[in-house]
Amino acid sequence: MATTGTAGSSGTRTAAWHNWAGNISATPARVVTPASVGELQEAVRRAAGDGLKVKAVGTGHSFTAAAATDGVLIRPQALAGIQAIDREAGTVTVAAGTVLKDLNLALAKEGLSLTNMGDIMEQTVSGATSTGTHGTGRDSASIAAQIRGLELVTADGQLLACSEKENPEVFAAARLGIGALGVVTALTFAVEPLFFLTAREEPMAFDRVTAEFDQLHAENEHFEFYWFPHTGNCNTKRNNRSQGPAAPPGAVSAWIEDELLSNGLFQAVNSFGRAVPAAIPSIARIASRALSARTYTDIPYKVFTSPRRVRFVEMEYALPRERVVEALRELKTMVDRSGLRISFPVEVRTAPADDITLSTASGRESAYIAVHMYKGTPYQAYFTAAERIFTEYGGRPHWGKVHTRDAEYFAGVYPRFGEFTALRDRLDPDRVFGNDYLRRVLGD
Questions:
Q1: Which in 260, 263, 296, 324 has the greatest CB count within 10 A?
Q2: CA 118, 121, 124, 125 torsion: positive or negative?
Q3: How many other C-beta atoms are found inside a 10 Å radius of the C-beta of residue 250?
């Protein structure tokens, strides 16, 4: 078990940990990289004995302080890889520190795939599911909703196996546990035989997308769109299952769209916009017209995911799906009337209702509005104004993205909130896995 730092009277501390976006940092007393589940259990027991809090952190793609601690920081990256494939049951069991990219590649080699996924795959499986990472889907839900079983190290160092049949009340909550119930060591996902998706990307006017949103959602397995603030322009994406064969974008086309426009040029444009905010509306009008329509077919992870190297800070809220167009129009009006300068597009996705206690889609069909600001750009005014709109519609913020809500708010928008906090009281009465973020969002 690799351990760095001490918690003795000398006050020695490890180097500061920073998340991907750079907006969160923490200086833990020690960092532990367990090479086995047994070592992880011992790390939890030792921390509890030393009176230290414990948090596990993946690749730091959350924008909140969900994993921040001045206690013991668990890095599960050595607990990685596929542990078992059950083709008859249609499941794969994978260690918690496995990065989604590695899982997708390994599954594809086995002729298997997750049903749905988000648009980036740099997170660990445990980090992604614990915060509610999702893609877009009419019928298929978040990554956490595809979990069929999990193992969890609890505050007393015990290893708890959870599924619909074994510890079902823990399973209902721990699929998306925000790190509050324990440290996940393994996850069993539902998988299916590898299939093809055909993606159709098409620019579309804001007024048309919002007027036809219900139809576009109903007609496509996976529909999403991006609105470019300061313009009336959007880019839409429709992913639907296909018989194949694979017909990926040509090398030149892919480089222009995914590398030059979406990363290289986008980085330069945002850097310029940060330096000269007054230029952003003009840049947005040009950028929103730069993307062209294209259609391509490939295996799922090559269609669902894209490289995202331009760093940003993000807020995202889940709203009742039937209210999302109304909220988006209100957001556009707010931006148009304000002096805000927004260089990042606004992303809209959907999800069916699920049965996970604190899932943002728990018990209701949902749609997501995500707002972003380029790293290093003041975001508070924009996010505050957007959040005011989202909360008016009973919005539920993504657990891993910027928000200001607290336990009192969540008790009002999650019917099963008390069920989760009662389970937390049972599993972690001494708050071994607590931190300031969890105190705010779950109470203490």
A1: 324
A2: positive
A3: 11
End-to-end CA distance of the chain: 31
Least confident of 3-7, 108-112, 326-330, 402-406: 3-7
Rg (CA), the chain: 22
Instruction: Scan for tokens 């190290």, then name that residue.
Output: 153
Backbone angles phi, psi at 4, to 5 degrees: -130, 150
Q: Which residue from 26, 28, 38 is spatially nearest to 74, judged by alpha carbons?
A: 28
Cα(380)–Cα(402) distance, rounded to whole angstroms? Answer: 10
d(CA 292, CA 307): 18
Hey, is 23 helix, strand or coil?
A: coil
CA–CA distance, 6 with 281 (Å, rounded to integer): 50
Query: 3-state SS string over 263-302?
Result: HHHHHHHHHHHHHCHHHHHHHHHHHCCCCCCEEEEECHHH
- Kindly tell me the sign of the dihedral angle through the C-alpha atoms of 373, 199, 294, 263: positive
Residues 6+ apart with CB under 8 A from 251: none
Asked if 405 contacts 442 with a C-beta cutoff of 8 angstroms, the reply is no
Do the Cβ atoms of 79 and 95 come closer than 8 Å?
Answer: yes
Fill in the DSSP letter of residue 54. E
Give residue-wise pLDDT tens across range 265-319: 677 777 778 888 888 888 788 777 777 899 999 999 999 998 777 889 999 999 9
Decide if pLDDT at 92 tops 60: yes
Quick one: pLDDT at residue 264?
A: 62
Cα–Cα distances in Å, from 219 out to 88, 215, 283?
A: 31, 6, 33
Assess contact for 294 and 248: CB atoms under 8 A.
Answer: no
Residue 137 has pLDDT above 60, yes or no: yes
Does the pLDDT at position 257 exceed 80?
A: no
The answer to whether 136 and 199 have CB atoms below 8 angstroms apart is no
342: which residues sit within 8 A by CB, 6+ positions away? Answer: 229, 230, 280, 284, 335, 371, 373, 382
